Amino acid sequence: MDTHALQELIACVNRVTGTGDVGLTLADEMARPLSAVWQSWDDADTESSQVLGVFLFYRYLAAHDRTDMLMAIRTLTPCLLYSDMALPPDMLPFLADYGVCEAERLREDARSSPDPARAERAAFAWQRIVMATEGDHPQREERERALRRALRLLAARRGDTAHLDRAVAAARAGLVPHGHRDRLATCHELLLALEERYEATGNAEDHEAALRCAEELAAYAHTSARDAVGCSLLFSFGEKLYQRFLRDPNTADLRRAIGFLQDSVEFPGPHLPTRLLVLSRALSLWSAAARDPGIVTEAIARAEQAEELALRNHQDYPLIKWQIASLYFARYRTTHSGDDLDRAAAAILEATLCLTRELQITALQSDIVFAQYERTDNSEHLLRVLDLRERVLRKLPEDDDFSRADALYALSQAQMHWYRRMGSFWHLDNAVDNGRAALDLVATTDVRRRQKFLCGLGNVHMARFTMRSERDALPEAIDLFREAIADAPDRCLPLALLAAALGYRYDLTRDIADLDESIAAGERALEFASAHQRADILLDLSVARRMRFGGTGDATDLDHARAGLAEALALPTLSARKRIRIGLEQAELASLSSGHPAERLSAFEAIVELLPEVGLSSPYYEDREHMLSVHAGLGAKAADAAVAANRPDRALELLEKARGILADTAPTPGWRGTRATTARHLCRNATRGPIVTVSAIETGGLALLVTPSGVHPVPLPGLRLHKARARHKALKMALASGTCEDVLDVLTWLWHTVARPVLEALKAAGWQGSRLWWCPAGVMSLFPLHAAGDGHDGVMDRVVSSYLPAVRSLPAARRRPASPGEALVVAMSRTPGQASLPGAASEANSLSRLLSATVLHNEQATRDAVLTALPSTRIIHFACHAQADTREPIRSRLLLHDQPLTPGDLPFGLDADLAYLSACATSDVIFLGADEAMHITGAFHLAGFRHVIGTHWRIDDLAAADIADHFYTVIAAHGPDHAAHALHTATAELRRAHPDRPDLWASHLHVGP
Predict the structure, then answer these.
(1) What are 823's strand-pairing partners?
(2) How many CB atoms lie within 10 A of CB 205?
């Protein structure tokens, strides 16, 4: 709990109490503490719950926002049920209505335990509910009866059952023989007495005796009219059969229970929602026993009928919503219908509002939210799952091995996925520990759960192997999958997982026996696979067969692989992500034959068309960026396939279509055209100089020279993807250690491998210009191509370089000179928590002198001040610290005085001239997402700044000031449209002075025309 924020809320509540001014809770300065307390709130802490709930109630009184009221109820209900603290009188009726369900759950929990403390909690909760219920409330009598039941239960747990025993004895003594006119009445009295004692003691003999009484009464009701009494008797017997089934599963009991329960819901009345709920529960169990998914639909219909009839303050309303969520989620696991999942998610949210401490609901909610994450890739869902599952594990009793095993397994899987998404080693290590702990707690005789846990832990080890290259993890995973198969050889999942793992081992060992076993396991998995599982298994089989063809040359494997992919593509409801994976394998198969270049190109064309469907499925930019980063490099592979098919124009079109997808959703003055732009239109952008795309795949690199005369491919055989990644890693290490010789070595490699072949090809084509635009893709966007050289010759000696995020992003030539406009300098020589930047003041003074700029210095440079100034600013200069988030570039930030400025903060649609980001690593991303990364430099260009100056890596403060001074001297004389030449001359001059310090002069880059 954020104690400082809590103290701020307490002070505000006290002020409201003293003045009566509830509007104080709406003050802007209360937003931060409210958010902080809500985020760290734990319902077990009733004192903080009281403060938070009262504050939210006052907010509701001030603004009448229903969300505030619901949040107040959510936080104050535990205070009503679990403590005797004073609460706002006006809130008590609402809290009682929302608390009855949890109070009844406490009583049911106490019935299943001999511990008197649980009975005390239940009795206390019902006493508080009755205290908070108004005298004329329609549920007042029912709640008083519930309190009496809770008190009888408490007495029984304390050893006092004498009054219950006397009641049963008296009822038995009063029972008249069959045929007597009072037989039904006395039988009913005995039924009630037995029910009361069973409720308090849980004695199975009482339940059996009550069931016999109920059966006799139901037999009478079957032959009489379906009135309120008759339906009540039918329900009583049906419910007891259902209860006996739960205690001792016997499908005959369940079938009979459903029949009587169905008859009992024919007559309307106040108890109908409860009866429909029990019927729905029985139907859901019968669906599982009969393996008939159609019965689930009837169970859903009965639960939704109960929902329509029950008011929100009905005692069973949260249980009805819980049942609806469970049923829709169960059906989703079969249908994989997004509508079923959405309905489950909506229902479980309402259930959790009233059942604040019901761990089964929290566990179900975490499973539903996890399914939403798997469907959408929304990282917010996964973060929520981690929070829910950690909460469940934290609150479970230490001696509840069964539940703790499930909770540990669930948390382990969430932690593994969080590692895959965010790269957090801590979470993966904990996933291993929790997976092992879950396996240790499950009994060897519990085959189904044990197999699930074995597969889950095996998957965690596979993540260690595939993402962290921990080779010892692969045999551990294989052993776990084999053990899971030994436990239950007719299960699809462990067979499929073993098949995939053996394929990975073949990559290491080249032992054909691994592939043989992998294919055999995959074929056996298909025998037990559901329609939803078949696509993944068929794909893995295709990969294994292709690899075996490479080892044996047996063309039969290729035929089977192609047939398997065709079958997978024909499956209904195949997601775009799976279609992309299948398309990639089709392309791999086509590449094995030199006679099928058109087939390979066709596969990539289909894949590229699917990328927007994958990348734009989430409303959150960082999730879109992540989903596209998973498929990074597709454009490069597609371009290579097009060139192999002798279609260089198509290569350019596919490379363009495969990137800039996110930018197309927010068009700006700096972004021209769409993904459908043809090569002929793209070549028109090269009238001022050639545009050169550079990409790398495992078989080699490719440059496309985009000129007015067409697209000309230049093969770069030395530019293999793994070598480019290794060189980038070497560059990062050299910069971190200050080893300039190694930086120069990378620049030399860039020159000989990429830049010189490109410039020589342009020269051979007759080009003699001095302006060139680099448009690198993937990992190549992380290199300073403009600084490539070997110390004797280089790019800076031949051309003035600029960069483009995509060929279509080059702004059109101006029809008029740039207008002078406003210039703004953001100078952070002192930044909280960061090292000082004395050069920032020097840069600010220089710009103020050269451009008459307005300066926001240190404390003046707030986030709001900068965003307010942006729309009227033609030139903006940042001299500040920056932090690059290489995994989620949209979270990269320029550090201002109060809050950072991120790419997502920038308004689109600006019409500005120049943004100069004299900061650290404003163009840095991780290579997995480089095709789409919204780093800070690119964000300013897309926001509408024609020219942007950024940096590849952290720069020396004084060198940055020298470059800025030289740059703005040129801009002051000639205007912003000379930005590229100004930067070129500034960095070239620094290179002449310090040729052995590329860390000083190779970082700056220009984006724009």
Answers:
(1) 875
(2) 11
